[in-house]
Amino acid sequence: MRKTLTTMLTKGLVATTGLGLAVAAPIAAASSAQALPAIMIYKVQYDSPGSDTGSDTSLNAEYVVIKNTTRSNRVLTGWTLRDKTGYTYRFPTFTLKAGASVTVHTGRGSATSTHRYYNKSWYVWNNTGDTAYLKNASGTTVDTCTWKGAGTTKYC
């Protein structure tokens, strides 16, 4: 027992209590959850409610929410959001505040710190399945979100 306890102590596998008792610690730690990306695609509303009329109201009800999961502001200038076909929204000079989200709508509107617009006259996201790609200014894919089949919304 002493040799085993000594081996476990030298390998950091034993913790001591304040009473001089040795307690074996677990050899493997529980697997940690995968960390969220700093900037991520949080939600895609790929099928706007009602009929696809092509109006700005209908187009803007199709959108992607991008979230900053960090405690610091992140510059998204030059970042892109695109679909499989290649319809691309490029962020102009833009900073996403710490912990904040920005919604990128398909239609037209006035850009703010929380709402941006593709300025498209027809829908970007396919209701039957598609993939949203978020790439940084260097063109590296930061996050993706894929959906197939029925539904209207995908939380990523």
Automatic annotation (TrEMBL):
InterPro entries: Lamin_tail_dom, Lamin_tail_dom_sf. Residues 1-35 form the signal peptide. Keywords: Signal. Residues 30-149 form the LTD domain. This is LTD domain-containing protein. It comes from Terrabacter tumescens.
